[in-house]
Specification:
Blueprint: E1 36-40, E2 43-46, H1 47-61, H2 67-86, H3 94-105, H4 111-121, H5 125-146, H6 154-171, H7 179-207, E3 212-214
Antiparallel strand pairs: 1-2, 1-3
Length: 221
Amino acid sequence: MRRAIFIFVVVLAATQAARPITASPAPQAGRVVDRIAARIEGDIILESQVRELGAFQQLIESHAESDDQLLSELIEQWMVQTEASTSHFPDPAQSEVNRELGRITAGFATTEAYSAKLRELGLSADEVRQLLVRQIYIERYLDYKFRPAVQIEPADIEAYYRSELLPELAKQNQPAPRRADVEEQIREVLVQRGISTLIAKWLDETKSRLKIERTPPGPKP
C-alpha cells in the first residue's frame, strides 16, 4: 500500500491471463446459450465474459463499468494476453496470487460474508482466482514491456514535488515532507504515468491493425 500522502494518485490498473479469453463451457439443456460479444481476428469474446468481468469489478471496486467499457477492456486484455503468451511470458507465482487474493478476502468481516458476496455476484471462488491470475499476468507483462522505456529526470521529480504533491497536501492540511524523503515514491508515480502513456499509444496502434467486430448486444438475461 502507498503512503497516505499518495492516496490521490491513480496508478496503473489491471487486467489478466491463465485461461484464454475465448474459453467457455458447452451449453447444457435448459440453459440460455451464450452470445458472441465481439470477434477479434480468429477469436471471440462472449457476453458471459463481459458479465463476469463486471462482477469481478464489483467485487474489487464496488462498482462496474458499462457493458461497452467492459467489452473494450476485454478486447485490450486479449491484445496484451496474446502478445504475452506468444512471447512465453511466465505465469505469476502462486504465492503472489495468494497474497492478492488474501487482500480481497481481508475486506470482508468473515469468510461467510465473502462467500455470500460471491453468490450475489454470480462468481465462484475458482473464477475469482482465474480472473486475478489474468489481471496479475497482464499487469506484470505491461510493466516488463514498457518500464525500460520510461526515463525520469531529477527535474521531473522536482516539478512533481513542487507543482503537484505540495499543493495537494496543502489542500488536505497535511504536512509537507522533505523531497528527499519521498523522491523514490515520486519516481515510481512518474514511471507509472509514463507506462500508462506508452500502453495507451501501443493499444491504439495495435487496434488499428486488427480486425475487430462488435456484435449488437442481446437481451439481458
